Amino acid sequence: MESTLKEYFGFTKFRPYQKEIVENILQGKDCLVVMATGSGKSLCYQVPPLITKKTAIVISPLISLMQDQVMALKQRGIRAEYLSSAQTDRNVHNNAEGGRYDILYMTPEKACMLAASFWSRLLDSGICLLAVDEAHCISEWGHNFRVEYKQLDKLRDVLLSVPFVGLTATATEKVRGDIVKSLKLQVPHVTIGSFDRQNLFYSVKSFDRGTAFLNELVTEISACADKAGSTIIYCTTVKDVEQIFASLKEARIEAGMYHGQMSNKTREDSHRSFIRDEFYVMVATIAFGMGIDKPNIRHVIHYGCPKSLESYYQESGRCGRDGIPSFCKLYYTRSDFAKADFYCSEAHTAAQRKAIMESFAAAQRYCTTTTCRRKFLLEYFGETCSFGSCGTCDNCTNSKTESDMSREAFLLMACIQSCGGNWGLNLPVDVLRGSRSKKILDANFDKLPFHGLGKDMPANWWKALAYQLISNDYLVETFKDLYKTLRVGPKGMQFLNSCNPDYQPPLYLTLTPELLR
Ligand code: ADP
Ligand code: ZN
User: Fold this and answer.
1) Closest residue by CA, ligand 1 atom 16
2) Which parts of the sequence belong to the Helicase C-terminal domain (predicted)?
């Protein structure tokens, strides 16, 4: 195995997990590989065909990605090719069937379209594995669900004794379960590498939309993008992409643009120029995604709260692939949090809608947490952290002061509880601030003992407090259709039960100026 690695790839040793995965595949076992971006997943399916002299089938979602990989493999003397619905070259088909490729890439649509006779001939020639790259696309819980992936289970019945390998860089427990089930993996060998990208520094800031902030952002970008490394700015809308692009242009900073409304050709040109360092800044929507294997991206800036932590982890993870310290910055405005229905338009079923809402709520909690961001991310992906603070995120490096908010927390939680625990955040805050809106009068909430007791503090302050109570598990968000409701969770109930109007046990929280904007 080591000599194959050296001969074809020029590497002297395997990275963590690679060897054990290859060994399991060689023994004919199904595998689930969950490893961070840049950890070397591809090698796990590229080595077995070179050892067994049988073809490896690789299912991959994007043609551009396959083209890149095929080209790189060919340069290494590996016989690689790809099949897509557009690819009708008879020769390629014949060679594929005849087992004359080491690695045969195909799109999921193509894989499901191929005739049974194709598979049986190829089986006769020898198949050493079937790998499904970006396997999270199979799950409705994933951030990138693709219907075509759902049909891959058909292949299991055709390729009975071929080891199946699902690979992904992002998978929560739910998604992992879905991959195993949908690909019908049989007692798979599961590898879960750490998600910790130690060379990345995480930070989050809130901002107010307007030219002042745009100018600030442009100054920041001009400071960080140069020959030493590139920057990607991810926006949530095409409009934002165009606006930032225009601002950069005005400041004479050379940049590229990438979004779904551009023609394929302009998009590809833009992608290529970025990869070739013809400019150092790319302003894009998340359509600029899979297959950006550029080692020297130094900054990934998100302009607007991302739709999920899965996508945030993957997008921000595109920086620092070369291991050099790099920066993941996120800017959000409070109004971003009201965008759930924008993201829900992608949903087809109630379950998908709920999944989207929950993922989005987690991204919001990441924005507003005042504890270690790395720990927050890692725990979200199911890792247990041995550290309390990482020292390489804004919350760990900024000095901040906690203060006792027991009375205010008591008021807010008791008010939410008294209102029945099935409203969003606005209503209980309005009750505390003494509003006499029709909704409040109709529900008799003006008669509650808490009505008006919080009028000294602005609504934003109460909301910031609520976000802290959410990220510390006192309050719990739940989702009904498109609505997010807030109730007091078990930890909050425990606190409330130990309170009375004259005494509240200490509860220390941090409300940073950021949160109060
Ligand atoms: P992933 O698919 O997990 O994001 P890749 O397979 O693209 O990661 O690998 C990331 C980089 O690491 C590639 O440039 C690859 O050549 C390199 N790499 C993979 N395995 C090894 C190894 N054993 N030794 C040195 N470099 C490796
Ligand atoms: Zn930290």
Assistant:
1) 40
2) 216-378
Q: Is the CB of 56 under 6 A from ligand 1?
A: no
257 exposure class (CB count in 10 Å sphere: 0-12, 13-18, 19+): buried
Residue 445 scores a pLDDT above 70: yes
Cβ of residue 37 lying under 6 Å from some atom of ligand 1: yes
Q: Mind giving me the DSSP string for 331-379? A: EE-GGGGGGHHHHHTT--SHHHHHHHHHHHHHHHHHHH--S-HHHHHHH
ipTM: 0.97
Q: First vs last Cα of the chain: how many Å apart? A: 57
- Global pTM? 0.72
Question: HSE (CB half, 13 Å, CA atoms) of 385?
Answer: 16
Which ligand 1 atom is the nearest neighbour of the CA of 36?
A: 3
Judged by average pLDDT, the poorest of 188-192, 309-313, 397-401, 476-480 is: 397-401
- State if residue 340 touches ligand 1 by the CB under 6 angstroms criterion: no
Instruction: From 269, 212, 264, 270, select the one nearest 241 (Cα to Cα).
Output: 270
Q: With bands split at pLDDT 50, 70 and 90, how would you rate the model's confidence at 238?
A: very high
Amino acid at 339: K
Does the C-beta of 42 come closer than 6 Å to ligand 1? yes
C-alpha span between 388 and 374 (Å, rounded): 10
